[in-house]
Amino acid sequence: MDSTRAPVAFGRWDVPLLFGRLQQPEAAERLRSLASLCDLMRDPERLYRTVTGGFLEQLQDLLKDEDPSVRSKTCELLHLVTAHSIGRQAVLSSSLLPSLSQLLDDSSSSSRINALRALNCLALLPAGADALLCLVPKLMLKLQQQDGEDEDDGDDGDEEEVLLLSTISCCSRLDALPALASDGVSLLGRKLTRRSPEVRREAAASLMELSIPVEGKRQVCEGAVLPVLVGLLQDEDVDVRTNAAGVVMNVAIITAGKLRCLDLDVVPVLLDLLSKRLEEDERSKALVLYSLRALTALAEAPDGRRLLLQQLPLLARTTEARHPDIRRAAQTAVRVVTWTP
């Protein structure tokens, strides 16, 4: 018998009895019960009985437990619950969210990471992102505190940073203004130069969401972020390139963005992405689409149209791509480039 886990009762008594054991005064016994519950939550039927049985509210006190291992294991249990849609909805309708968000300041890194994992799962739902919008300033503050920490802290530091960025990205997809008001463009821009490709990927994804409003486009143009993003168009990671191209596409819509991108000589870089026929890879479909749309926006400027007229054969070849979306985007780019008054 595994000494790290509490015994599991037979049949439908398994979940109720384990939750009942969470009230025991010994932290070791609470940990054993939590470990067994984490195992059971991997079974959809038991997870459903946990959610519909009203047991989640019993975790409220455990999130404030004196033992950091208990807090961490409770967050792990909630992460397993929020991995399913029905679990996310149950947590959102419960009173657990304030206590869970307070663990972002926990002294235990495992508690912080497990809490962030659960919050990140909640943010995948529009209702969850809406509920977490009030937390965006705090998430940005936690992200800023990561700047002062040594990048060599290990995988835990990177994972915490990635989770913060991912949650901010999900919330900003719903409303980018809270992150913009927290100096989001400048802060996220500093994350673009991190060694970890996961951090760069999520930072660029968050910036793509922040560059949708006009105010976000303006901030990206005025800061030192855009040159870094242009450099990331040649990153080794295809997702980093894709997200960077998405920001360039958004920024190139406004006049200041067009002029800034042309000054940074971004057209040859975008054309190089098209010449590699990356649309053959399904993962790179978005990269090609973003590149084409960015080139289309840049073609509205005289200097951009002049550069692209010289590369019209390449754009014409792209209109024969396999994906219908890419074909349509390429056809639009050709029409804009060849437009005459």
UniProtKB/TrEMBL annotation:
It comes from the Eukaryota. This is Condensin complex subunit 1 C-terminal domain-containing protein. SMART domains: ARM. ARM repeats lie at residues 224-252. HEAT repeats lie at residues 225-258. It comes from Amphiprion ocellaris (Clown anemonefish).
